[in-house]
Amino acid sequence: MKKKEALDIIFRYLILIALSPFILSAIYFVFTPLTVYPAFFILNLIYPSSSLVDLTAISIQDSHISLIPACIAGSAYLLLFLLNLTAPMPLLVRIKSLAFTFGSFLILNILRVSIFIILFVIGFKYFDLAHLAFWYIGSTLLVVLIWFINIRIFKIKGIPAYSDIKALLKESKYKSKYMLVSKK
């Protein structure tokens, strides 16, 4: 392993450790307005009398819809961020990858929020079921799908965390004959 490679691994994980206390609140700070305002814009096209009560609530007809942190899906952004930083890739590819994954998820989340608000306002009979199903299953599949598309677009070869651990163990002087490290 080259010294540059080892420093890259150490640097990426130090960034994760240093940012970990702040990252989720930063994600909500950035992505709450980026989600709420476009969703409100879309809803206002359909329901011109709708109003934005504050940054977390939209009023449409007789309905008052609160957008809680789960609607913003900060954990999904966090997972995409963790996958990105723990996968080995060149810096420029990493920046493009982050922009793609965050941008893709943001657009799809705005559409999801808007659609579910419309379903709520029209009184969709299976709203609760659809909302819970998407919350528990759909959101996870969405993040996985975005990550796999990202891998394909940017030709990412490494597996998050695993590739780094494998590279470090390969160079370790405490190699075990039972390690799953390929020999050259």
- Class of secondary structure makeup: mainly alpha
Strand order of the largest sheet: 1-2-3
Rg (C-alpha, Å): 21 Å
Count of helical stretches? 7
Instruction: Profile the largest sheet.
Output: 3 strands, antiparallel
Task: Sum this structure up briefly.
This protein is mainly α. Helix content is 68%, strand content 7%. The protein has one domain (3-170).
Description of the structure:
The structure is a single chain. With 184 residues, the protein is mainly alpha-helical. The protein has one domain (3-170). Helix content is 68%, strand content 7%. The chain has seven helices and three strands. The chain has helices at residues 3-19, 23-46, 69-72, 74-85, 91-121, 127-154, 162-171, and strands spanning 51-54, 57-60, 63-66. It has a three-stranded antiparallel beta sheet, covered by helices on one side. Strand 1 (51-54) and strand 2 (57-60) form a beta hairpin. Helix 4 (74-85) packs antiparallel against helix 5 (91-121) and helix 4 (74-85) packs parallel to helix 6 (127-154). The longest helix has 31 residues, at 91-121. The radius of gyration is 21 Å and the shape is elongated.
List the main descriptive attributes of the protein structure presented here.
single chain, mainly alpha, 3-stranded antiparallel β-sheet, 7 helices, elongated
How is the topology of this model organized?
Layout: H1 3-19, H2 23-46, E1 51-54, E2 57-60, E3 63-66, H3 69-72, H4 74-85, H5 91-121, H6 127-154, H7 162-171
Antiparallel strand pairs: 1-2, 2-3
Helix pairs in contact: 2-4, 2-5, 4-5, 4-6, 5-6
